[in-house]
Design a protein that fits this description.
The chain has 227 residues and is an alpha/beta fold. It contains 8 helices and 11 strands.
């Protein structure tokens, strides 16, 4: 089987009703992003940050994987599929995908504020006073602004193995995730699915642009890759 590596972003989850990371006004659910997604925000107001992610966790229980998620799982019948996502939801897994790497963390996990390797599955509310086995306050298992992306090297290694690369629902403008496209071997076919693509075929002659939202774009992709 050929290796199909898929990079996904907020656009694929948006069609399931998951709020996108940054709204048009630059706020996330009415909050300045740095208040709820940075170490400084955490140290200034832990309760605010925890409440914010508690609401995101609760919302996740109300949404379902969409056809784009399910189509990617379906492609495992034809390819060895590796999904590298910037999303912190679990919609890929719920749709049936078996190889998912979360670059920016996972909403349904928490970790020690002291030991980043002390990670727990967590589906309910997290509040000030909740501690791990090290007796230290737990925090969302999310990569915040200003923090390292610990799985970036793993993601780069996976991308290097791609026989086909697919990019869905991400502008590829957020670094370091955007750098992953540079890890594919020269000549590797690349499919870019986005309703407002900001890339040019001139820079990558092996690029196929599908200017559609995730659900319609992945449906077209499946037809291409399975015929």
């Amino acid at each position: 089987m050929k290796n199909l590596v898929v990079l996904t972003g907020a656009g694929i989850s948006a069609e399931s009703g998951v709020k996108t990371f940054r709204d048009a006004d630059g706020l996330w659910e009415g909050h300045d992003i740095m208040e709820v997604a940075s170490p400084d925000g955490w140290y200034k107001n832990k309760a605010l940050v925890l409440d914010f992610y508690n609401k995101r966790r609760a919302q996740l229980k109300e949404v379902q994987p969409n056809s784009a998620h399910k189509f990617l799982a379906y492609l495992e019948q034809y390819y060895k599929v590796h999904i590298i996502t910037q999303n912190v939801d679990n919609l890929h897994e719920r749709a049936g995908s078996n190889n998912v790497l979360h670059l920016h963390g996972e909403l349904l996990k928490v970790r020690s504020t002291k030991d980043e390797n002390l990670i727990y599955n967590w589906e309910n509310e997290l509040v000030v006073g909740d501690v791990g086995s090290d007796n230290v306050q737990l925090r969302p298992h999310i990569v915040w602004f200003g923090e390292d992306v610990p799985l970036l090297e793993t993601a780069a290694s996976i991308t290097e193995t791609a026989d086909i690369l697919v990019i869905i629902g991400t502008s590829m403008q957020v670094y370091p995730a955007a750098s992953l496209i540079n890890n594919v071997k020269e000549g590797t076919p690349i499919y870019f699915i986005d309703p407002k693509p900001n890339v040019s075929k001139k820079s990558r002659p092996n690029l196929t642009i599908i200017p559609k939202k995730a659900v319609d774009g992945v449906r077209e992709l499946v037809q291409i890759l399975t015929n």
